[in-house]
Design a protein that fits this description.
heterotrimer; A mainly alpha; B mainly alpha; C alpha/beta; A: mainly alpha; D-Maltodextrin-Binding Protein, domain 2; MetI-like fold; 15 helices; 8 strands; 61% helix; C: alpha/beta; Rossmann fold; four-stranded antiparallel sheet; 10 strands; globular
């Protein structure tokens, strides 16, 4: 009986442990599920604000437009229906605020009770009209035609050059500016952090005396512990004004400010990982090189660095990964302009910063909300790829070591 | 051997080495200087702000005066909540992965998932926490939702440090215990865990430092700009130090007037991290001395 | 004249003395075996001859170490050039993470030689010297890690030979190898003797007996006995030597 109890409790505990160990895997699965469920939802939605309609005259032969075309109409880049496959009529933009040109307040009514009729007759009487208003003003006798708007397409999402989710009448959901912004800032950061980090790693692992190392190493690890919001704050009060003055810019919040802050933040990752890799170089290998008459420096660049190259690669990739995913510091110093950047001295907006800045204002379940989750999916996929590459690089290293 | 001027060769070798070493040493010291500069700047600007009132009072006049008491309390709640969740689960998971799990494809997958989770950006945790805890499970913006999100974020870190602590325990201890007829769990609980305990605790303290500074995961799961009252249940929103620093330094109309408060808040955050590091290092030294004495 | 000589050598790691008053003189073109239990100082002694111990901080040496009559610890000695006079082979095969060819060419390149043809010739002769040429001539561009342990060790010997040292220092060169590879290396040592002066540290008494002309027995940092190998193994003068070589302590 006692034996049975013992056996039972062993099993019970083992089960408990096993459940705990599956939680991380479960979390990854759940993250994928929720992220992608919401994120992919963006492709199931029209880039039109919910409850609104775009209407045209019933005689107009155009029936369906996509977001870009509508935007071009409203930007007055397209002025004739013939450009959209319709008859040769010039396009007449009707905006809600124009209604006072047609009707007096009395005609519309105190509680807008006659507004639907007014809108109806405007749309019915002007052949080239296009109008955008809430669906609730479309009544039963409405004679106009409701335009069909294409759903957000993959092409629009990844190829679009404008990120303006709250624009009217149609949201502009092109992630190009954000992707470019992320890449500019991250690669700027790695350009700063990689040479510095490698040099420091070489110094720590091969040159520095024991005492210097014992002081410097924990200090650099401390650099990793400082919260990103503190880095952001430091960047905001020191680096941003410095850049503004140094380059004589209207604002200091630029991609460069983000790169510098991120570069500092990526340093500890790069230093610790590549230093570990270098210290793993067998002593005998270094001694063999020195015994052949090589100097210490020759030994470092001809033996130690090639031998730890996979560790160094892993360090660089993880550094980029950290930079791409970093949110708060970037949000605080890059200026967040959603424009495709052409130089590092411009304000930029990265993917994580976009999520952080906009999710609070995006109504749950709406198009904007889902678009931000889609951005989250992109980030998730990038980090997943980075992890897989690092895993591949480091298993490769283990295999060649023998 | 082709004629090579030994002296010239040695000279050029020495010169190259000197230049390279000088460069690397300068970079090393440069990086340390950056760190010291960041720290001393914030200490210099923040030290005058910190006093008992700053720590113990509510913010006043649109965050330009008063203290950061509610943010400290909120961060305290979030740290305790997330550690209550992540610590037991993380340690149990690590025990299973290190002591029980047999090598094979499943173990590799679980390990890969854990590694991947560790690499997921914190803002993605924020998105996930919002859609699962806040919306789907209906916790709303609350300490509960924030703690769970932060807990998931540090879970892989807790697992990793615990696993390292367990791996450092020599296998002969396990074999000796099993050889005496102890079961696996008895061996783990009475032999392995006590030996690994110091390192596990050290890892725990370091992850407290990490959690207290995270901002992105709490943006949409718990953090509030300003609350006139302290939270009274786990379903309430809370203020938190890192979010507080973020909002008072970037938004609002009183950015300039609230700068001193921002410096003070940054200093408090840095102090938390520093203290965690110091405690962890101190514990490590204390325990390693104790082991040597035995 | 002696090829290698040490006169009244003391060596310290910090405060602990690793070698006490060692006097040895080694003739050119001989093989000298250094034997003794672990920690007796034999490896430390071997590493005096190419100043490998300099790499460890906080060490001190008294007395003289001479190569060709020159004190190598005298002021102004060029350590890099000194190390070119001595080749070293280590316990475990430790090829560099480079191709087979580049492993052997390494010593030439770091010493400033750029003549491509010369390097190619020297690499070939060196590999031939260690009887590895036929096995690797078709894969000189492959990674050295693809070779077997025994082949790697012979490659490491070729690497040491390429810079044409006059002394080869071997630190238990066969301790990580199988018996067949070991036999090959021992054969090689015998052949190299005609051109080089070889000092070999070994744990293996039979190996010392097979390959060496003279043997030095170290114990706790002291040189207990040093004489012709045959003499030392058949008729040791000192009881402790006898106890060690007959396996009474180890």
């Amino acid at each position: 009986m006692k034996n049975f109890y013992k056996k039972f409790s062993e099993r019970f505990i083992e089960g408990l442990l096993m459940i705990s160990s599956t939680i991380t895997s479960l979390t990854v699965v759940l993250i994928i599920f929720f992220l992608f469920k919401e994120g992919l939802g963006v492709f199931n939605k029209k880039p039109l604000e919910e409850g609104y309609a775009v209407v045209i005259n019933r005689l107009n032969s155009v029936g369906k437009l996509n977001a870009e075309q509508i935007k071009n109409i409203y930007d007055q880049k397209i002025n004739n229906w013939s450009e959209l496959g319709g008859a040769n009529d010039s396009i007449y933009l009707f905006r809600m605020e124009d209604i006072s040109n047609y009707y007096t307040d009395e005609q519309i009514g105190e509680n807008f009770e006659h507004l639907p009729d007014c809108l109806n007759s405007i749309v019915d009487s002007i052949k080239g009209v296009i109008a955008f208003f809430p669906e609730k003003y479309i009544n039963k006798s409405f004679k106009g035609k409701q335009l069909e708007v294409d759903k957000v397409s993959l092409k629009e999402f990844f190829g679009g050059e404008e990120w303006f989710p709250t624009s009217q009448p149609v949201s502009q959901l092109g992630v190009k500016p954000l992707i470019y912004g992320t890449l500019w800032v991250s690669f700027g950061a790695i350009l700063i952090a990689l040479p510095l980090g490698l040099a420091a790693a070489i110094y720590l692992s091969e040159i520095a005396k024991g005492r210097v190392r014992r002081i410097m190493k924990p200090l650099i690890e401390l650099l990793a512990g400082i919260p990103s919001v503190v880095y952001g704050f430091f960047g905001l009060v020191i680096i941003v004004p410095f850049i503004q003055q140094a380059f004589n810019l209207p604002v200091g919040e630029t991609g460069l400010a983000g790169s510098i802050v991120l570069g500092i933040m990526a340093l500890p990752t790069i230093i610790t990982i590549s230093e570990d890799a270098m210290r793993n170089t067998p002593r005998a290998m270094k001694e063999a090189s020195l015994a052949l008459g090589a100097s210490k420096w020759q030994t470092i660049y001809k033996i130690v660095i090639p031998n730890s190259i996979s560790g160094i690669t892993a360090a660089a990739i993880l550094g980029i990964g950290r930079a791409i995913g970093e949110t708060m510091a970037v949000l605080m110093v890059t200026g967040n302009a959603a424009v495709i950047p052409t130089g590092i001295l411009q304000p930029m907006r990265t993917i994580p910063a976009t999520i952080a800045a906009e999710l609070g204002e995006a109504p749950d379940g709406g198009l904007h909300y889902k678009a931000l989750f889609a951005l989250g999916c992109i980030l998730f996929i990038i980090t997943l790829l980075i992890n897989l590459i690092v895993e591949f690089v480091s298993t490769n290293r283990k295999n060649t070591k023998h | 051997m082709p004629l090579i001027d030994e002296n010239k060769l040695t000279k050029s070798k020495n010169r190259n080495q000197k230049i390279a070493f000088f460069l690397f040493a300068s970079v090393g010291y440069f990086i340390v200087t950056i760190l010291v500069a960041i720290l001393s700047f914030i200490v210099y600007k923040g030290i005058g702000v910190i006093n008992w009132n700053f720590i113990s009072q509510m913010p006043e006049e649109g965050m330009t005066k008063g203290g950061i008491y509610p943010a400290i309390i909120g961060t305290l709640y979030l740290v305790s909540g997330s550690m209550l969740f992540a610590f037991p689960i993380g340690v149990l998971a690590a025990i299973y992965m290190n002591e029980y799990f047999k090598d094979g494809i499943i173990k590799r997958i679980v390990r890969m998932m854990t590694n991947n989770l560790a690499g997921v950006p914190s803002i993605v945790f924020g998105l996930f926490g919002m859609s699962l805890f806040v919306n789907k499970l209906g916790f709303g913006d609350s300490i509960l939702a924030g703690s769970l999100t932060l807990g998931l974020l540090v879970l892989p870190i807790v697992i990793r440090t615990t696993e390292e602590a367990l791996k450092a325990v020599d296998d002969t201890f396990r074999q000796a215990s099993l050889g005496l007829g102890a079961t696996k769990w008895q061996t783990t609980r009475r032999v392995v865990l006590p030996i690994a305990f110091p390192n596990i605790i050290t890892g725990l303290i370091l992850s407290i430092g990490r959690v207290s500074g995270e901002t992105a995961p709490i943006l949409f799961t718990v953090a509030a700009y300003f609350l006139p009252k302290l939270p009274s249940s786990i379903f309430d929103q809370a203020m938190a130090l890192p979010y507080h620093l973020y909002v008072i330094s970037t938004s609002g109309t009183n950015i300039e007037e609230s700068r001193p408060i921002a410096y003070g808040t940054a200093l408090v955050l840095i102090l938390i991290v520093l203290i965690c590091n110091l405690i962890a290092n101190g514990l490590r030294k204390y325990f390693s001395k104790k082991v040597k004495m035995n | 004249m002696y090829k290698l000589e040490s006169k009244n050598v003391d060596f310290f790691y910090g405060t602990s003395q690793a070698l006490k008053n060692i006097n040895i003189a080694i003739h050119p073109n001989t093989v000298t075996a250094l034997i003794g239990p672990s920690g007796c100082g034999k490896s430390t002694y071997l590493r005096l001859f190419n100043r490998m111990n300099d790499l460890i901080g906080n060490t001190k040496i008294n007395g003289q170490v001479l190569i060709d009559g020159d004190d190598i610890y005298a002021k102004g000695v060029n350590v890099d050039s000194l190390r070119k006079k001595t080749g070293m082979v280590f316990q475990k095969p430790n090829p560099f993470p480079k191709t087979i060819f580049e492993n052997v060419a390494y010593g030439l390149r770091v010493n400033g030689i750029t003549d491509k043809k010369f390097i190619e010739e020297r690499v070939e002769t060196s590999i031939k010297q260690v009887v590895l040429w036929d096995e690797v001539k078709d894969k000189l561009k492959k990674s050295a890690f693809e070779l077997s342990g025994g082949q790697q060790q012979r490659l490491c010997i070729a690497r040491a030979l390429a810079i044409q040292p006059s002394v080869i220092l071997m630190d238990e060169p066969t301790s990580a190898l199988d018996p067949i590879s070991t036999a090959k290396i021992e054969e090689l040592i015998y052949e190299l003797k005609s051109k080089y002066t070889i000092v070999i540290v070994t744990h293996n008494m039979q190996q010392a007996g097979r390959v060496s002309d003279s043997t030095a027995f170290f114990y706790l940092g002291e040189l207990i006995e040093y004489s012709a190998t045959k003499e030392l193994f058949t008729n040791p003068k000192i009881e402790r030597t006898q106890n060690y070589i007959t396996g009474r302590f180890g």
